[in-house]
Design goal:
The complex is a heterodimer of chains A (481) and B (482). Chain A is α+β, with helices and mostly antiparallel strands and 481 residues long. Chain A has 16 helices and twelve strands. Chain A is globular and about 65 Å long. The chains are: A alpha+beta (481), B alpha+beta (482). The interface between A and B is large, with 114 and 114 residues.
Chain lengths: 481, 482
């Protein structure tokens, strides 16, 4: 859920925003990491007396500097009846603060040849700028002002305007998109009522309507303390000067209250679920979701490699069988999605028109059975990790890419260089590891969801045993929603 | 924690001192309402390039950048499906069919050979130009380019693969018919350009008519050295690049004739008309306001870029500020110019709340009309627009791909070597009067195509009541309905 889209379907839009933001309630399907020989991002770190962690990474190769401010709070920290609030709050952070009138932030980013955006997921929220290097002090001033003095400029009119925008974001990303609600339906079934990952990042229309000015104030005070925040500066700057500025602008912001992280039960299903969802679509699709693991699990790396081996390219297991041999599917993908505390392994099939979903599901299961017993070949393992070295160099080209890599490490592991651990863990995965996690996680306790055209429940996989579902987060009032 | 973390700990101690002295400064009072002063803007240095002509007639352009051991390689071809007279739909299959095997590699071998190098080779044939290329580590360049040449020269284009891809493309076409943005994209060109080449859109019938011979013939016709320029940006010298390409291109001898192309002029548009395509039960409508504008690199281009930035190109632009930020009718309403060799389209568009379709149209028309003079362009708007177009350029040359794109624009279009400096000067010389004139000339509110895709039964009457223009009802393919 980002503040602004970069490119819409029809026009080649020119907004220089939304660079690689983490956005989806179901996390990106990461595949593989990098070799231990990967180049490192040089950085230094220190903590201001108010608890703000500062990371500095100097790179003079282009006259550009990126500022990334990340807070360890996301949709999982929302309260009952206020789903979508963390993301709505992200929008409010762009409406001006005590010493910065509304609109100035855009003028001092895109209006000086730079860009800005923010993003929210289940676990964290970030705000960033990428600007010509002479604007570093300006961006620190802007970021510090909203972190320290947001509430001085808050009024209900601003909240209401952003509420309408976010409702349109929900329509555009979820309600008006074929299969757009499948993700939130699966999560609401995977995690029980009250579980912090039960609801989508975008929230429900009703809860967005209910969000109040008082909610903004208490959420800000609870979660936006400097001690729950990391500030990363990456690019062409003088670190001594940057430290002076960081202290000058952020130093006076008081510490926040103690942060209470939610207790999160692991993803678990005690029985299989079989669902059918009627959508505004002309062709059916099949979705399968298995309980998985969070980012700190030792099985995460092997699950990532497993996804690449089962569906990464045309010779991999599921793709070869269904797209190329049987031609039952236009595409098939399976991937591991790890959030901070929990995760899922998700499979999506776009069937060839006329394909029988019941037969397709059974045939997929038999390929997975074979994979569990035979395991991947050495060549499949090698291919799954070969792209790693190149990717690890490539990401070092953008200042913003470096900044968000360091910040993510801090948020999830309190270790900015965790990307190196990630690469090392991934490179160490063996064929036996992959076989083991396939057997452990790709089990019968899973959710199978058929998304079918309106009135066509008989197109579902095993239609007689499938329970009809709708999204509980869609508007109850809007027709077609 | 490893060595990096140890280094970080040492750094922490060193900066502890620093941070404390800085804190002392931080505790001093200062006026937070005062915006910090800024130093001079970094200069935009267009990377220097060197050129050579290879034995087979391909022009070579090299930009050296040795910080990282990576290389961006691309071949740009002049002319595309429009100039080659290719049947509609054929070019969309070429890229995928080039992955289906060569005379010496099966499709699976081809896939695995590239996967083991950690890279992919991409091909794209557009209406007016095309590309082929890859990024790789500098040390795997030779192996990668040999596979790329094998795909270009020796692909077998199996008929069975075409059938599989056709089924997939037809299914994707059918899925697209459920999406308001996709319907707008397939109807708009017909409204702007009629029967001209720019008005042609691939239909399901076109997809059904393509044969493997069509695809094979296009590859032969398209991959011609005389129309190609090769770009190498990254960790390689000109001498290395020449040697490597001469070796790789021995399988690609000189052939063909230099392509000479002409492009149609902009068709004249009738008075503003609203075209309505019905898609029941859609909670948002796609609203597009467009007209055919001006060829790329015309003298008006820099002024049109400034006009577009103020109208809908920037987040803070008039359309987005009004329709999104003030009214909340949309998650984003923007504008853009699809620059082409002939008259590309200038377009403003967004997905808007169904119940606010009429209001969004009223506001969009108000803003476009305002830009012709009724709501004067401010100095603040001009400054932001100019800066967003020119001061952003240094960040475009952070990556090897970005450098390739900045340099190739000049070489591909035969522009003067100092074109970027001229462009920046022209942008900066643009006045408020220029912006109004460009709006009048290229987004004239009296001669726009207004396209709305949405729930006609729920929005039709309200849109008619705006009295902005007569309404013509169309089906999803753009055919007039009674």
């Amino acid at each position: 859920m980002t503040r602004a889209l970069s490119v819409l379907a029809v026009v080649a839009a020119t907004w220089p925003v939304a660079v690689g933001a983490q956005s989806a309630p179901r996390p990106a399907k990461n595949t593989v990491g990098a070799k231990s020989a990967a180049p490192r991002i040089p950085f230094e770190t220190y903590v201001l007396p108010n608890g703000l962690t500062v990371l500095l990474s100097v790179d003079h190769s282009a006259p550009v500097v990126a500022v990334d401010v990340e807070h360890h709070v996301g949709s999982k920290n929302e309260e009952v009846g206020r789903t979508g609030f963390a993301h709505l709050f992200e929008h409010v952070m762009f409406t001006g603060s005590g010493h910065v009138p509304y609109g100035l932030h855009d003028k001092l980013t895109e209006g000086v040849g730079g860009s800005n955006n923010g993003s929210t997921n289940s676990d964290k929220t970030n705000f960033y700028e990428s600007v010509p290097a002479n604007y570093l002090e300006t961006e620190l001033w802007l970021e510090a002002d909203r972190l320290g003095w947001l509430l001085d400029a808050l009024d209900i009119g601003k909240l209401n305007a952003q509420r309408d925008i976010v409702k349109n974001e929900r329509r555009q990303s979820t309600d008006n998109v074929p299969y757009g609600r499948v993700g939130e339906i699966l999560d609401s079934r995977m995690y029980p009522e009250g579980h912090p990952y039960h609801w989508p990042v975008i929230g429900s229309m009703e809860d967005l309507s209910a969000a109040s000015e008082a909610d903004v104030k208490s959420f800000f005070k609870q979660w936006y303390g400097p001690d729950n925040t990391v500030l990363v500066i990456a690019g062409d700057f003088n670190p001594l000067q940057a430290k002076t500025w960081a202290a000058k602008y952020f130093g006076a912001i008081p510490r926040g209250p103690a942060v209470k992280r939610p207790v999160v039960a692991p993803a678990m299903l005690s029985a299989p679920q079989r669902l059918v969802y009627e959508d505004n679509v002309s062709q059916p699709q099949l979705f399968v979701s298995w309980p998985g693991v969070g980012v700190r699990s030792s099985d995460r790396a092997a699950l990532n490699v497993m996804g690449a081996i089962l569906s990464g390219d045309r010779t991999q297991w599921l793709s070869q069988e269904f797209v190329f041999n049987r031609k039952w599917a236009s595409s098939i993908s399976i991937g591991n999605g790890s959030n901070e505390d929990v995760g899922t392994i998700d499979l999506n099939v776009v069937p060839t028109p006329g394909a029988d979903l019941t037969k397709l599901e059974a045939a997929i299961d038999s390929v997975i059975m074979r994979f569990k017993s035979d395991g991947p070949t050495a060549e499949q393992m090698k291919k799954a990790t070969a792209r790693i070295e190149f990717t690890s160099y490539n990401r070092l080209q953008s200042m913003l890419g470096k900044a968000t890599t360091l910040a993510s490490g801090w948020i999830y592991h309190r270790d900015p260089s965790w990307y190196l651990t990630d690469l090392r863990q991934t490179m160490a995965v063996t064929a036996a590891d992959v076989q083991r996690v396939a057997s452990r996680y790709l089990n019968v306790n899973r959710i199978v969801l058929s998304a079918v055209p309106m009135g066509k429940r008989e197109m579902a996989s095993n239609p007689g045993q499938s329970t009809p579902v709708t999204s509980k987060f869609a508007s109850k009032k809007e027709v077609g929603s | 924690m490893m060595r990096t973390a140890v280094a970080a700990m040492l750094a922490l101690c060193a900066h502890g001192v620093m941070a404390h002295s800085a804190m002392a400064q931080g505790s001093a009072t200062f006026d937070r309402a005062k915006q910090p002063a800024v130093g001079p803007a970094p200069a935009f240095k267009v990377p220097t390039w060197t050129t050579a002509t290879l034995s087979n007639g391909v022009k070579l352009v090299v930009v050296e950048k040795h910080e990282l051991p990576i290389v961006s390689f691309s071949i740009h071809f002049t002319g595309g499906a429009d100039q080659l007279g290719t049947k509609l739909g054929v070019s969309g299959f070429l890229s995928a069919m080039l992955r289906e095997g060569t005379t010496t590699r099966s499709a699976d071998q081809l896939n695995n050979d590239l996967a083991l190098l950690g890279t992919t080779v991409g091909f794209g044939v557009g209406a007016e130009s095309g590309t082929a290329g890859f990024s790789s580590l500098s040390r795997t360049f030779d192996q990668t380019i040999d596979i790329m040449m094998d795909m270009m020269r020796n692909s077998t284009f199996p008929a069975a693969a075409l059938e599989r891809l056709r089924t997939q493309q037809l299914a994707a076409y059918t899925r697209g018919q459920d999406v308001v943005g996709q319907i707008a994209a397939q109807v708009l060109p017909k409204l702007l350009y009629g029967d001209q080449p720019y008005g042609k859109v691939v239909s399901d019938a076109d997809l059904k008519a393509v044969t493997r011979d069509d695809v094979a013939a296009l590859a032969k016709q398209f991959f011609v050295p005389v129309n190609a320029t090769a770009y190498i940006v990254g960790d390689m010298t000109l001498a290395q690049a020449k040697t490597k390409l001469e070796r790789a291109f021995t399988v690609w001898p000189a052939s063909g004739a230099k392509l000479v192309a002409t492009y149609p002029a902009a068709p004249s548009l009738p008075a503003t008309t609203i075209y309505l395509v019905d898609m029941p039960n859609k909670p948002q409508s796609q609203l597009v306001l467009a007209r055919a504008a001006v060829p790329a690199y015309s003298p008006d281009m820099p002024k049109v870029d400034v006009m577009n930035a103020i109208m809908g190109g920037m987040f803070q632009s008039r359309l987005n500020a009004n329709i999104r930020e003030v009214h909340g009718y949309s998650y984003g309403f923007n504008s853009g110019v699809a620059w082409r060799k002939g008259p590309g389209a200038a377009r403003a568009q967004g997905a808007v709340t169904r119940e606010k379709t009429d209001s969004s149209l009223i506001e969009a028309m108000k803003e476009i009309r305002g830009m012709t003079g009724a709501i004067p362009i401010t100095n603040d708007e001009l400054t932001a627009a100019k800066n967003s177009l020119t001061l952003s350029l240094p960040s475009d040359v952070q990556s090897v791909d970005g450098i390739s794109s900045v340099v190739s624009r000049i070489v591909d279009e035969n522009l003067p070597n100092d074109w970027w400096a001229q462009y920046i000067a022209s942008v900066n010389a643009t006045t408020a009067a220029d912006v109004a004139a460009m709006t009048k000339k290229y987004m004239d509110p009296e001669h726009l195509v207004v396209l709305i895709v949405g729930d006609a039964a729920k929005i039709g009457d309200a849109v008619a009541a705006t009295k902005i223009a007569p309404i013509v009802k169309l089906d999803k393919t753009g055919k007039k309905l009674p």
